[in-house]
Design brief:
With 452 residues, this protein is an alpha/beta fold. The chain folds into two domains: 168 residues, Aspartate Aminotransferase, domain 1; 276 residues, 3-Layer(aba) Sandwich (Aspartate Aminotransferase, domain 2). Helices cover 41% and strands 17% of the residues. It starts with a helix and ends with a helix. The protein binds pyridoxal-5'-phosphate (PLP). Pfam families: Aminotran_3.
Length: 452
């Protein structure tokens, strides 16, 4: 029963990213059921899912056909190794399907278990690539403040969110550049000048560290957990051009932006006019129905990685679950649904409506900025709209807004002073209207409670 489950959880489950002061006080909220855009808790309360689980349930909940595909694969052949040239049909089919969907030059796929392991594997492949080219000093990776790339030690080191890493060591392989934060850009700078400023910083950093010591630049096309930050126009393509000129690989972490969230299977080329050497995906790849990550590699890189080295020359990296048949079967069915139901088209149609309706919340006292693109949005809460000063951390404003929304039947994600909205990609205009009405009340209630 509910109380028994709650107690077992409190006694035994260490939750990821737990604030123990809240956990000891409240324990967990048990989500037990789901259907389409809804999830339900153990007490039978139903909520609109405003976060697609965790930026991942792109096709929505309760898709029986994905469950069936997984069950069929699990009963036929749940697992066998993909090491040493062994393979399985779903992994092979999925690799070919990803090559078909991806930008034309990305035709080779390395599977992992999720986003962190995709990024981790990527850095190993990048180092392997430069070692094979006889350029072993090209090791350092450029990332950005407030980037989120995961929590294995390498992925956490790429991550630039200070509060994530304050109790951990990080690997001294990464240099963090400034985030591209248009809302908090230096006073008096136009967006175009801000872009120049960020590009200058990159050029100066390359000069300081030496291009011979830099292997790659990694970025999310829109920074996600770091605050849904949309870079100034032209930023990504200018960065890529500089990387190219310095033989620095350009890696796009599309763990969130991939599989439809911005209206395309891959946002890098379609939205940001870049041709990354490597694209990483996870989350929406299987819509979260099974753990899976993938690293898509360009033909040029593959040519170097795959040059035979003779006996003993093995590309010795990979996971037991690389190309897991059940996860790959889930991903294949998920992709079939996205294509068959025109889910990217839905995002292109409803996404701008979501953006415009969320912007009607700007009049609330705490709402400083409403930003993002399509089904990847955030609201930044502030104490003062003119100075953009933040409320004190103890006010827990993001938590307050999320709690007020949840009371009214909507789950959104609090991240510090922000609230993130990253729904399943099947929201309609009607759902958007219902959600914005709830948020309107939630922000009003938050303002009242902050004054109480
Ligand atoms: N990269 C990005 C952009 C992410 O948002 C995340 C997770 O939120 C990750 C990587 C890590 O993925 P995972 O939690 O599956 O390891």
């Amino acid at each position: 029963d509910a109380q028994d489950l709650w107690q077992k959880d409190k006694n035994h489950f260490i939750h990821p990213f737990t604030d123990f002061s809240l956990f000891h006080e409240k324990g967990c909220d048990l989500i037990t059921d789901s259907d389409g855009i809804y999830v339900e808790d153990v007490h039978g309360n139903r909520f609109i899912d405003g976060i697609a689980g965790l930026w991942c349930v792109n096709v929505g909940h309760g898709r029986a056909e994905i469950g069936q595909a997984m069950a069929e694969q699990a009963t036929r052949m749940a697992y066998f190794s993909t090491f040493n040239n062994l393979s399985n049909a779903p992994a092979t089919e999925l690799a070919a399907k990803l090559a078909e969907l991806a930008p034309a030059h990305l035709n080779h796929v390395f599977f992992s278990c999720g986003g962190s392991t995709a990024n981790d594997a990527t850095i190993r492949l990048v180092h392997y690539y430069f070692n094979r080219l006889g350029k072993p000093t090209k090791k350092r990776i450029l990332s950005r403040t407030n980037a989120y790339h995961g929590t294995t030690y390498m992925a956490a080191s790429l991550t630039g969110i200070a509060s994530n890493n304050w109790q951990f060591d990080t690997l001294d392989l990464v240099t963090h550049l400034s985030e591209a934060n248009c809302y908090r850009r230096p006073e008096g700078m136009s967006e175009a000048e801000y872009c120049d400023h960020l590009v200058d910083e990159l050029e100066q950093t390359i000069e300081r560290l030496g291009a011979d010591n830099i292997a790659a630049f990694i970025a999310e096309p829109i920074m996600g957990a770091g605050g849904v930050l949309v870079a100034p126009q032209g930023y990504h393509s200018r960065v890529q051009a500089i990387c190219r000129a310095n033989e620095i690989l350009f890696i796009a972490d599309e763990v969130v932006t991939g599989f439809g969230r911005l209206g395309h299977f891959f946002a890098s080329e379609a939205v940001f006019d870049t041709q990354p050497d490597i694209i990483n995906v996870a989350k929406g790849l299987s819509s979260g129905y099974a753990p899976l990550g993938a690293t898509l590699i360009s033909d040029d890189l593959y040519a170097v990685l795959s040059t035979p080295q003779g006996p003993g020359g093995v590309l010795s990296t990979g996971f037991t679950y690389s190309g897991h048949p059940v996860s790959c079967a889930a991903a294949l069915k998920n992709i079939e649904i996205i294509e068959r139901e025109g889910i990217c088209e839905n995002v292109l149609e409803v996404g701008p409506y979501l953006e415009s309706q969320l912007k009607t919340l700007a009049s609330h006292e705490t709402v400083g900025d409403i930003r993002g693109s399509h089904f990847m949005m955030a609201i930044e809460n502030v104490a003062n709209k003119t100075t953009k000063a933040l409320l004190p951390v103890e006010a827990r404003v993001g938590d307050r807004v999320a709690a007020e929304a949840q009371k009214r039947g909507l789950i959104i994600r609090p991240v510090g002073h922000l609230n993130i909205i990253s729904p399943p990609l099947i929201w309609t205009r009607q759902v958007v209207d219902d959600v914005v009405a709830i948020l309107d009340e939630a922000f009003a209630a938050t303002t009242r409670s902050l004054k109480a």
